[in-house]
Amino acid sequence: EDKVVQSPLSLVVHEGDTVTLNCSYEVTNFRSLLWYKQEKKAPTFLFMLTSSGIEKKSGRLSSILDKKELSSILNITATQTGDSAIYLCAVEGTGANNLFFGTGTRLTVIP
Amino acid sequence: NAGVTQTPKFQVLKTGQSMTLQCAQDMNHEYMSWYRQDPGMGLRLIHYSVGAGITDQGEVPNGYNVSRSTTEDFPLRLLSAAPSQTSVYFCASSYSRAGTDTQYFGPGTRLTVL
Which of A4, A42, A96 is the closest to B106 by Cβ? Predict the structure, then answer.
């Protein structure tokens, strides 16, 4: 059964801290891994990682895919209160449009 | 562009009632999906469509029907609502496969079944 597991489930840090969020997966016919940020409502896309693009960076956020370990990390440096959100990891497997999501990591950044 | 729109925002149903959740996008996206989000369960794919006239089942399709008569619209029908279908429902669309392209989510519909 396809599965995506995220850890930790929740995390509380102070502004300025660096955090690392983890995502591991067991998915048949892995094609890509995606990270989303969900604040109050709908998830918004952050990164997509594939076999040909295993590291992505945007500002203070960066992500790496480890295909050997079947996992990915999302790093956020110099955290700000605006980074408080649920971070979702999703993996694309078999099927025309099939994404499997993890349960998410709830990050809270306190001033 | 309005992006992905969903109606209604909130809905309360009684067990056994049927209803349709509406989803529309104005970005000319071929790929559309319906997800449900439950506490501790993450997002789970209900049904998806890769173009007008083509739909397929996701991870949790039971109790739901979809159709895709136009590129813009992808309604989700609950045939006979059950309390287990209490959830937040998100519609999403993308130009190509969700795993290869940015997927845009609607604002969600919070459904409660009593």
Answer: A42
